[in-house]
Write a structure and sequence with these properties.
- This protein has 451 residues and is an alpha+beta fold.
- Among the domains are: 36 residues, no CATH class; 115 residues, PDZ domain (Pdz3 Domain, Roll).
- It is built from eleven helices and twelve strands.
- The strands form five sheets. It has a four-stranded antiparallel β-sheet with strand order 7-6-8-9. Strands 1-2 form a two-stranded antiparallel sheet.
- The two termini are 16 Å apart.
- This is Site-2 protease family protein.
- Keywords: Hydrolase, Membrane, Metalloprotease, Protease, Transmembrane, Transmembrane helix, Zinc.
- Its cofactor is Zn(2+).
């Protein structure tokens, strides 16, 4: 049964990521078509084609490697002035622009070949539908549509979990009685049942009840469990006067604390025992925070800050994973993971007996939401071949044309993103290397989930 649940968790995670990829690409394709652009392909995955179907001018399909997706929008790269050939006519007499290849210099050749490959998809009559000829704001909408969809997916997943199950944030320990202990059990025997020879706790003798909220200790107000704990521990075996709130009514209770050995270090691994005052109550721990859309937006704002910090440290973190692969150091708990690592975490979450089923569903949704938020933010990085690189190019085009109008100068024309292709290939190569390192790391040195 455990193995079946593990497989189910992996399948659910992978399916959710594939759906997210598909929706991401729809975020590009739908506005591109709405603005009159020509989209010839819509694929989920890379590599060999598993299935495809032609619908109108667009081929829809699935490829063998489910590590991404793409839509082919015709005319992403403009023809360079040096690459344009003569205007020719086809057999039907239509005017056709021919793009010829240049052979001077490695980078020049690379750019020229890319332009030529791009313009092989341009057919007679497509001139007004090319992406590079769209208004700058349309380019921004088209390229921002994909990552924006990922962020919206994350928002709705987070909102759904926070509104129903709750947000499992850092536990909030309140100065409210959850349980009154019947007897004093030595720390070394913690967890056993009471025996006739065990001493009754001061809280039991004082008549404290679950739900009682501590207001003051010996006349000193308390607003947190830590303040209450400090005052009880420092009280030793003296008399203590407790002001409590019980159902809206304030009551004053007097008792004597006793001295017992307990660990008091904030380090959970330090179990050094110290003789301190003891009352005998367990606090109320609220580990779930419920909230609506505004709470979700604020929470996603915090997650965005953390994600951007993680993006800035990504190369260093990936280097740490590489060292974990060869056994130089342990895999850090906060290291990035690939889709393979995400699937493993989802499988372990689904198959563990340590958390109830409703928690499993919530955690799986949060994992998928976290992946979508990171993917969305990552794609906004202003570097080609990421969506943010095209957005940056469109914004630069708008700025350049706007300044030209203000200065009453000629229109400088479209921004030639093809000139940045060498940078795009370097970035793509770096992303490929990091992806391979993370996948290998998730296989041979996975993150310890604690399940």
């Amino acid at each position: 049964m455990t193995a079946l649940l593990y497989v189910l968790g992996v399948v659910v995670f992978v399916a959710a990521i594939l759906v997210s990829i598909g929706l991401h690409e729809l975020g590009h394709m739908i506005p591109a078509k709405a603005f009159g652009g020509k989209v010839t392909q819509y694929f989920i995955g890379f590599g060999p084609t598993v299935w495809s179907r032609q619908v109108g001018e667009t081929e829809y399909g699935v490829k063998a490697i489910p590590l991404g997706g793409y839509v082919k929008i015709v005319g992403m790269l403009p023809p360079g002035a040096d690459d344009l050939g003569e205007v020719e006519h086809d057999e039907n007499g239509e005017r056709v622009l021919r793009v010829r290849k240049s052979n001077t210099g490695m980078f020049t050749q690379l750019i020229s070949d890319a332009r030529a490959a791009e313009w092989e998809h341009v057919k007679p009559g497509d001139e007004g539908r090319l992406f590079y000829r769209m208004a700058w704001w349309k380019k921004v909408v088209v390229m921002a549509g994909g990552p924006t969809v990922n962020i919206l997916i994350a928002f709705f997943l987070f909102w759904g979990v926070y509104a129903t199950y709750g947000n499992p944030v850092e536990p909030n320990v309140e100065p409210v009685v959850e349980e009154v202990l019947d007897c004093v059990v030595p720390y070394s025997e913690d967890g056993r049942t009471c025996e006739p020879t065990d001493e009754v706790t001061p809280a039991k003798l004082a008549g404290l009840q679950p739900g009682d909220e501590f207001v003051a200790v010996n006349g000193r107000p308390v607003t947190s469990w830590e303040e209450l704990q400090d005052q009880i521990r420092s009280n030793s075996d003296g008399e203590v006067t407790l002001l409590i709130d019980r159902g809206g009514e304030q009551l004053e209770v007097t008792t004597n604390t006793i001295v017992t050995a307990r660990p008091i270090s904030e380090d959970p691994t330090d179990e050094t025992l110290t003789q301190v005052g003891f009352l005998g109550v367990q606090p109320t721990v609220d580990g779930l925070v419920h909230g609506g859309p505004l709470y979700t937006v604020r929470d996603m704002g915090d997650k965005t800050v953390h994600s951007l910090q993680a993006l800035a440290q990504l190369p260093v973190k990936v280097w740490g994973v590489a060292k974990a692969i060869v056994g130089v150091e342990e895999r850090a708990a906060d290291s990035p993971v690939s889709i393979v690592g995400g699937g493993r975490i989802a499988g372990e979450t689904a198959s563990t007996d340590l958390i109830p089923n409703d928690s499993k569903i919530a955690f799986l949704a949060l994992i998928v939401g976290g992946f979508n938020l990171f993917i969305g933010l990552f794609n906004f990085v202003p570097l080609l071949p990421l969506d943010g690189g095209h957005i940056a190019g469109a914004l630069y085009e708008a700025l350049r044309r706007g300044l030209a109008r203000l200065r009453r100068r000629p229109d400088p024309g479209y921004v030639d993103v093809a000139r940045l292709l060498p940078v795009a290939y370097v970035v793509a190569s770096a992303l490929l290397v990091m992806g391979v390192v993370l996948i290998v790391g998730d296989l041979v040195a996975p993150v310890d989930t604690g399940f």
